[in-house]
Amino acid sequence: MTPVASRNVANILIFVGLVPILLWLFLLALSFLHPEAFLPWVSAGIIMFGMPLGMLSVFIALPMMMLARNRAAANPTVWTRFHRLPFFFGVATFVVAVIAGIWLVSNNFRRGEARQPESMKTVAAFEIPLPSEADRDQFLSVLRAAAEVEGMHVDATSKGDLEQEAKVSPNFQMTMNAAVWRSSNDNEAVASAMDQFDHLGQVWLVFSRGEDPAMAIRFRERAMHEIMLHWPSTLSLPIMSTGAIPLHRDLIRTPTGYIVKPSEAHKYDLTGTKTALRAAGQQEADALVQQLSGLPAELPSGPHSWLCNPAPAPCSPPPLPPDEAKRQSIYDQLFALGSASVPALARALGSQDVSLRSNAALALGVLGGGWWTSSNRAQAKIDISAALPALTTALQDPDSRTRALAAQDLGDIGAHAAPAVPALVKLLASDDEGLRNSACIGLRGIGAPAADALPALRSALSDPSRDVRRFAELAIASIEGRLSQ
Q1: In angstroms, how far apart are the furthest CA atoms of the chain?
Q2: Would you say residue 29 lies in a domain?
Q3: Is 70 part of a structural domain of the chain?
Q4: For residue 399, is it within any domain?
Q5: How far apart are alpha carbons 28 and 36 in whole angstroms?
């Protein structure tokens, strides 16, 4: 081969060898400059395949570059400065690729994991029992109706496509695969719903924070309200700090939701995520509790109040007015959050908003009372003792309704609320009949540890109000052990 021919072949092979690494650099730049153009797994693939593409370039282009350098030194007349440009271009390309590779590696080490946009972070997740095709169709109708109110739409994989995917592998079995999208271009998924081979018929509905959190919360509330009405056995799922949900086989079912099996906790680095999980739960609960403001601070008579729920026969539920539908939706979500909702309600007792304070006290009574029903399902009682300091302080609230509800809530805590007995005794001396009633109710719930209140309660037996006398008598009987709680 003549020197000119070998020069041309070497330069062509240099360019051929550089194509893979140039393609990788181009896609890498594009994925960072326009991330919305790529699905997350595509972007991850672009980063991962940088190494094999770089090695391919090295094996093809590098030998030719070395050859070009040696031949150029031996034949300077054939290898002019122009003909050496491919060599210099190759060197520059490899330098840029190495710098990009080092940056990616150091960035991943520094972050520990790929950064997830705030809008994509999971804020709530639920398991919904959809065993039949009719259930799944109805669920999609509910999801679409809630989405359309906010101008969103739902895309769902057809039954035929799901069956085709299942034929590829048993692990691909699904009865539901749907997503709620915010725009017509499907740029932002606000929620997803799917099951898998190990929990077929038990669909996991996962909600993201969204680029518009207020809209995402409205959608979630609307959707979950309808879902709880149709499928009251829906349960909450735990969420890791990364936004991931543990494997189904590593979860334990409880009355208020799933938790991770203690024996499997090591898989999920729970020691490192407890703080993040607590913070995420508190943020979610705080946002939910704030929505109680403006609601009436008392429950209406009917199937969703204490006047009906304890009855031997269930009441016929009338249509819920908007305020009560909103209240029920919020309460359902507070119950789903479990104990994480109690600190949020306790914090709300210190708000400047009197409506929020009174409604927080009312909600604590609902959570801790053990009598609330939703969609014909009794909700399990939640321990509200974490709110004891805030409730004791609330006995001095300027708003009488908040004081009364706080006194009753202390009774729901039981014996652990004994430190609040002196404040309840002071409430017995109030000019407000309702406050005296509530003080008696609280002391009755505390029971024997409220023995110091007996003199004041015996005095209340001569109260002008028949209700106060009756509640005082019940409180005395409870303290003396003559009345079961």
Answers
A1: 122
A2: yes
A3: yes
A4: no
A5: 13
Residue ranges making up the domain that contains 49: 3-111
Domain total of the chain: 4
Residues 183 and 222 in one domain: yes
Of 363, 429, 362, 416, whose CA–CA distance to 389 is shortest? Answer: 416
| One domain, residues 83 and 7 | yes
Tell whether 327 and 356 lie within a shared domain: yes
Give me the phi and psi of 255, to 5 degrees please.
-60, -30
Closest to 478 (Cα-Cα) out of 431, 432, 446 = 446
- Is 406 part of a structural domain of the chain? no
**Rounded Cα gap, residues 334 and 257, in angstroms:** 12
- Spell out the per-residue pLDDT of the chain, length 485, in tens: 677 777 677 677 767 777 777 777 777 776 666 554 444 445 555 556 666 766 666 676 667 777 766 776 777 776 676 766 777 777 787 778 778 777 766 665 554 444 556 777 888 899 999 999 999 999 999 999 999 999 999 999 898 888 888 887 777 789 999 999 987 676 788 999 999 888 889 999 999 888 888 888 889 988 998 898 889 888 888 887 667 788 888 888 776 678 877 677 777 654 444 444 455 556 667 888 898 999 998 887 654 444 444 444 545 555 678 888 888 888 888 887 778 889 999 999 999 999 999 999 999 999 998 777 665 456 678 899 999 999 999 999 999 999 999 999 999 999 999 999 999 999 999 999 999 999 999 999 999 999 999 999 999 999 999 999 999 999 999 999 887 55
Q: What tokens were used for 84?
A: 């050496």
Residue 47 neighbours by CB under 8 Å, 6+ apart: 28, 31, 104
Q: What residues does 177 pair with on adjacent strands?
A: 194
Query: Do 181 and 292 fall within a single domain?
Result: no
Euclidean distance between CA atoms 456 and 60, whole angstroms = 95
**pTM metric for this prediction:** 0.49
